[in-house]
Amino acid sequence: MHGRRTADHAPRELADVVGLVGQDPAAGFVTDTVEDELAYVMENLGVDPAVMRRRVEDVLDLLGLHALRDRPLSTLSGGQQQRVAIGSVLTASPSVLVLDEPTSALDPAAAEEVLAALTRLVHDLGVTVLVAEHRLERVVQYADRVVVVDADGTVRADEPARAMASSPVAPPVVTLGRLAGWSPLPLSVRDARRAAGPLRRRLAGVAPPPATRVPGEVVATTRRLHAAYGRIEALRDVDLDLRQGEITAVMGRNGSGKSTLLHHLVGLRAPASGRVEVAGSEPHRLPDRRALRVAGLVPQDAGLLLVADSVDAELRAADHDAGAPPGTARARLDAIVPGLPGHAHPRDLSEGQRLGLALSVVLAADPPLLLLDEPTRGLDYDAKDRLVAVLRDLADEGRSIVLATHDVEVVATLADRAVVLAGGEIVADGAARDGVTHSPVFAPQVAKILAPEPWLTADEVALALAGGVGIGDPT
Question: What's the N-to-C CA distance of the chain in angstroms?
């Protein structure tokens, strides 16, 4: 790049050529406020103060951060933090911007906000943007080229539609296009809707498969739950019943209170007012070992639960802490991630393997309530499919499962019920199909393409077509 080989130059010597934004933008912040963070890289590069001031103003305007210039970084939403992280590397005027999973922790609206900012960088400033992203449904429509890395390490680049035609992974819009035989393959909901008329008409008289899981007894309740961080209200008057065998998705914008709700259900926080009860007890009042057997939480970073230096050591510690027979956690792990070697270090595992290990550690205590915070963050489509199968099996065992997530496609595939939070309050609570179908923000791609017909996933459509519904024009 610019005549400099990356093998011969340290990253700091390439800061004016290539900017890197990692998966967790907050982990890279080194100052306290937005404006200071934008100026930090330039200060290290010795940029003239007059030039620094101009570049800061340019980036504030370009990324829509002007109103936030004096805000503490700790008070920003996930989308705002992501834009500040992008801005902090842009002030060095790099010609290449590399982003690792820039939308993985963002709600759909915040993700669109960040992707719109990236599009402006490409079209208005001529910056080359390279994005590594598992959630192709969010980004592929913006791409000029797609680079596919095959399982054998082969790397190939192509025009997006051609690349998606043979890619081993594909977003729902592409999967539906392949199923319907559309050519060229659509990459956006807008393009797919233009082609979907005949398919929509054929599906008009067909009902999607009915829900088969029947919820059991109430496992956990919250009544007028209120939570606050200082003067900031995180939850307000939340009333919720969670039942055996039910998979509940908690959705909402970044900062809506999803993680706070999970922390109260597992007992990590005591209510400011109101009541939380799980399996007949208030979880925040229980001793640690008893709390493990009431509710289990897998946090956003599953690695936070893993402290030993090998998989076997983690599993032994899980059995001991839960008071479970030896081998309990290993049996769970073998069912979730078969063949994971016991000598492997947890930090050397893939995201999916690490999540499976953390889930096995939590399940060793056999809690009736299982909570997962953004469990699909960093997972590819195959890993998501495996997680969906595991969670379905756990629900079939009678466990109540709650996942706080921005992944609308997983909600469409997995959830029985959707609870939507906004400003710490429940604004919607009902069947997942109804909740996501009627939401312009949280609807999955297939629902948007085939609306007003109530289809959620390409798998549902495939089953209907296999049952004799044609995909051509009616005859």
Answer: 58
Identify the burial level of 386 via C-beta atoms within 10 angstroms of its C-beta, where 0-12 means exposed, 13-18 middle and 19 or more buried: middle
DSSP classification of residue 463: H
- DSSP reduced 3-state for 242: strand
188 or 93, which is more confident?
A: 188
Rounded to 5 degrees, φ, ψ at 157 are -120, 145
The pLDDT > 90 percentage for the chain reads: 60
The strand ranges marked E within 161-217 are none
Q: CB–CB of 422/268 below 8 Å?
A: no
Segment 345-351 long-range contacts (CB within 8 Å, at least 24 positions apart): 345/309, 345/310, 345/311, 346/303, 346/306, 346/308, 346/310, 346/311, 346/314, 347/303, 347/306, 349/311, 350/383, 351/302, 351/377, 351/378, 351/379, 351/383
For the chain, what is the radius of gyration of the CA atoms?
24
- Tokens 């056999």 identify what position? 366
**pTM > 0.85: yes or no:** yes
Cα dihedral sign for 277, 278, 284, 286? positive
Separation of alpha carbons 394 and 30, rounded Å: 42
Structure tokens belonging to residue 217: 């007894």
Distance CA 345, CA 312 (A): 9
Determine the average pLDDT of the residues in 388-394.
95
Q: Please, how many CA atoms are within 13 Å of residue 115, restricted to the half-sphere of its CB?
A: 22
* Of 49, 18, 23, residue with least CA distance to 130: 18
Strands (E), 299-407: 369-373, 400-404
CA distances for 149 relative to 104, 135, 170, 172, 320, angstroms = 19, 15, 13, 19, 41
Asked which of 45-49, 98-102, 341-345, 464-468 is least confident by mean pLDDT, the reply is 464-468
What tens digit of pLDDT does each residue of 202-225 get?
A: 888 888 888 778 899 999 999 999
What CA–CA distance (Å, rounded) separates 237 from 378?
Answer: 33
Contact 90, 60 (CB under 8 A): no
